[in-house]
Amino acid sequence: MAxxxxxxxxxxxxxxxxxxxxxQKDMKLAGVTAHSYSFNTEIAKQKGYKIFTVGGDNDxxxxxxxxxxxxxxxxxxxxxxxxxxxxxxxxxxxxxYYKPKKVKAAFQxxxxxxxxxxSFVAQCNYDEAxxxxxxxxxxxxxxxxxxxxxxxxxKYGIGSVHATMVRRGAxxxxxxxxxxxxxxxxxxxxxxxxxxxxxxxxxxxxxxxALSVPSTLMxxxxxxxxxxxxxxxxxxxxxxxxxxxxxxxRNAEHLRSTAEIMEFARDLGRLRGDMPEICVWQEAIGITSxxxxxxxxxxxxxQESDVIPENIDCVRAMMGFKDSEKSIKMTNETxxxx
Length: 338
Ligand code: NAD
Prior knowledge:
single chain; 12 helices; binds nicotinamide-adenine-dinucleotide
């Protein structure tokens, strides 16, 4: 029987997870919630998704949408709910998912690890979410760091990592956040990303710094990794080429910037122009020439989409599907990821 999934919080992440659920052969999208009326709700209606109210009366009916019920009605119909509400709301929702019956719930990276108990990146620690009632798909930045660092750790062993996240100021649709004319450092050391990586890659020593810039397209990470074994650039390129949900991009292709990567994703015909793979620049992979055990690389992270396949795999793991590789393959096929 198909896994019945609901989405609570139908915004940047929620609408993408809803479409991804609807694409899976082993899942059925039971419905999505609407906290308030917007173009997102209109599109959900056009797609034929059932729409449920949350937080009492809102302006759906005024705008010609007849809801199919409320959150409690939706909870009666599902095995798992994906909570993609704004950060910290998910934690407050956790208890609601016990009523009217206990429903499993997958949360996003805006919630703290401690509130949920299990943090998840499919290719790193799928097994930790198997049969869990609650799990958290880590943030877009943490997902990006975990995907590539896990591969590096398995091949070379990691002594320690220093990474800097150059973060987009806001999502493209977002008229409220910034900066629009500043570079804003995160004034805490380490930034929260390093400890967050350790909720998934438990034994990796990592120190992170971060700053925000006036861009909406992607995040960019620079990493310096002390390796336990010697490495060379060609092997490192091959490693990333063969890592799930990682894509090597090249200067020669004129994929020299986050802007060009986003244009490339649109040209690939990806839904919404998304790029769920972490893009590592081939020419920006380096190994220090004296010791051969320090790896440097740069990667771009499409914040709106890299966590979407993770949500799908997390739902499968929570429902007891044990084969991580098969789950990743099934999900990737529906996204057109190589
Ligand atoms: P968003 O603001 O785009 O969407 C949130 C949606 O939830 C909106 O549609 C809003 O109307 C609705 N909502 C608000 N309060 C609600 C409530 N009480 N109940 C139900 N719905 C409610 O937010 P987002 O960017 O999709 O972020 C959702 C989660 O995903 C957060 O934890 C965030 O940290 C995480 N995340 C975001 C990104 C990103 O770049 N946008 C990337 C990875 C993870």
